[in-house]
C-alpha cells in the first residue's frame, strides 16, 4: 500500500520550478508526494492524457483519486499536503487567489529569464528551514534521532 496523495509534474529545466520543487521535496518527509520531472528524457505526457506543452507551461498535480489540479490550485494542494497550511490558506483567500491566478501565467511565461540570484537566495533559505524542521521532527525529547 502506498501513501502517495499527490503526484506532481513540473518543469525540471526551469531554475525557478526546480528550486521550488527541491524545497517541497525536503518537506516531503512522509513520502506523501511523488515528484516527476516532465523535462526529463523519456517523460511521456501523452500517457497521462496531456500534451507536453501543457505540462511544461503549468504545474500539474494528480490526486490519489485521479483528479487534476493545475497552476495555483496545484500549489495550494502541495503546500497543504506538505505542512505549509498558512501558505495554502492564503492561496484560498479570494483576493490573493485572484492575484495569484493573474500573476502565475506571467511567471510561467518569463520563468526562464528570471534572475538566478534572488531565486537561489529565497529557495536556499526556505530549503534550509525545511531541512531543519524535518530533522527536528525525526528527533525526540531524549536527544535521539531516527534516520
Automatic annotation (TrEMBL):
Cross-referenced Pfam families: DCC1-like
Q: Which GO molecular-function terms appear in the entry?
A: protein-disulfide reductase activity
List the coiled-coil residues.
none
- InterPro entries, alphabetically? DCC1-like (IPR007263), DCC1_Trx (IPR044691)
Specify the superkingdom.
Bacteria
Entry protein name: DUF393 domain-containing protein
Amino acid at each position: 500500500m502506498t501513501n502517495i496523495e499527490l503526484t506532481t509534474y513540473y518543469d525540471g529545466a526551469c531554475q525557478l520550478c526546480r528550486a521550488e520543487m527541491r524545497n517541497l521535496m525536503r518537506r516531503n518527509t512522509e513520502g506523501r508526494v511523488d515528484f516527476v520531472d516532465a523535462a526529463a528524457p523519456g517523460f511521456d505526457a501523452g500517457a497521462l492524457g496531456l500534451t507536453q506543452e501543457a505540462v511544461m507551461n503549468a504545474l500539474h498535480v494528480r490526486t490519489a483519486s485521479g483528479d487534476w489540479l493545475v497552476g495555483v490550485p496545484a500549489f495550494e494542494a502541495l503546500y497543504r499536503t506538505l505542512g505549509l497550511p498558512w501558505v495554502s490558506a492564503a492561496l484560498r483567500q479570494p483576493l490573493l487567489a485572484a492575484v495569484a491566478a493573474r500573476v502565475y501565467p506571467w511567471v510561467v511565461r518569463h520563468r526562464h529569464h528570471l534572475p538566478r540570484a534572488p531565486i537561489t537566495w529565497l529557495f536556499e533559505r526556505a530549503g534550509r528551514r525545511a531541512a531543519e524542521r524535518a530533522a527536528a521532527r525525526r528527533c525526540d525529547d531524549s536527544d535521539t534521532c531516527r534516520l
